[in-house]
Amino acid sequence: MSGEPWQDLVDLGKLRAWMDARDLGGGPIENPTALAGGTQNILLRFERDSRSYVLRRSPRSPRGDGNATNRREARVLGALTGSDVPHPGLIAACSLTDVIGAAFYLMEPVKGFNATLALPPLHAGDGATRRRMGFALVDGALALGRFDYKAAGLEDFGKIDGFLERQVPRWRALLDSYRDYKDWPGPASIPGIATVANWLIGNTPPRFTPGLLHGDYHLANVMFCNDGPELAAIVDWELATIGDPLLDMGWVMATWPEPDGRSISGNPIEPWEGFPRIEELLAHYAAGSTRDTSYMRWYGVLGCYKLGIILEGTHARACAGVASKLTGDRLHGASVTLFQRALGWLERDKLI
Prior knowledge:
- The structure is a single chain.
- This protein has helices at 12-20, 66-79, 121-124, 127-146, 163-177, 193-202, 246-255, 278-288, 296-319, 325-348, and strands spanning 30-34, 42-48, 51-57, 90-94, 104-107, 211-213, 222-224, 231-234, 241-243.
- The protein is an alpha+beta fold.
- It folds into two domains: 6-107, Phosphorylase Kinase, domain 1 (2-Layer Sandwich), CATH 3.30.200; 121-348, Aminoglycoside phosphotransferase (APH), C-terminal lobe (Aminoglycoside 3'-phosphotransferase, Chain: A, domain 2).
- α5 packs parallel to α9 and α7 (246-255) crosses α9 (296-319).
- The longest helix is centred in the last third of the chain and has 24 residues, at 296-319.
- The protein starts with 11 loop residues before the first helix and ends with a helix.
């Protein structure tokens, strides 16, 4: 959640009037409480007329167009209503900025927990439950892949033509932009980055089946049920689009901890024993999907390439003195590890 005080960004009086006009309860807004989240958005939980709500809006100075992002999030959550994709239920959305100064939406609170923060006793005490949690993450991706985005009115929610071909140039352009940061040593500080890019370009899957993808699908962006291993909800939909849903599994491959629990992010889940290996997750996905999964190595390598470049951005900013050196060094190490993972796959499979 953003570090900004929510009181400066959510006028409860105006919110109450907006809710009154939509018959969303009556009386005062009670017990407003800021929630922690995986993004910089403002998340505010409150009660009104014996019903709980969570409000989501962008911070005061969002990256990019925070209003457009919130409108897209609300649209996709609304489209998912009634589907088997685990998601927070959309209650109502405001696309205008004249109520609280930004577009926002109200959603149902999720009854669940984020596994990357802590495991409750049930899950921490049983390796079999943790194993099923890993497969439940894959089941969420499978549900996304089955979702009929056309029937849900999301046909214009992304650009399908050339989707896979655009991936490497898009992220390479981001990498090139880091040259504007003084004292950044450049891409040569990441061994294998050119090899990975060239392999991706030369081995792009020839076709794909379009569908809805989350865009940032990994353990930190799902919530698990408190009473079992199933997913309670997939959260943080700001990067959702129509494209190739196999990219979500590629992101899982890139971010999944090592068998000993070591994590790319430096925030391991403890205990890790019991969680499936990457190969088991891929087999579970292939068994449950009608999509062509013969190119899954490509999607995993792309996930490493994309995330590695994103993380290197903080290192570049740190080199220029506009970000923490400690954080920059740590994320540079994570970027190097991601490219080592990608190269290791390619070398093991004799693809390079």
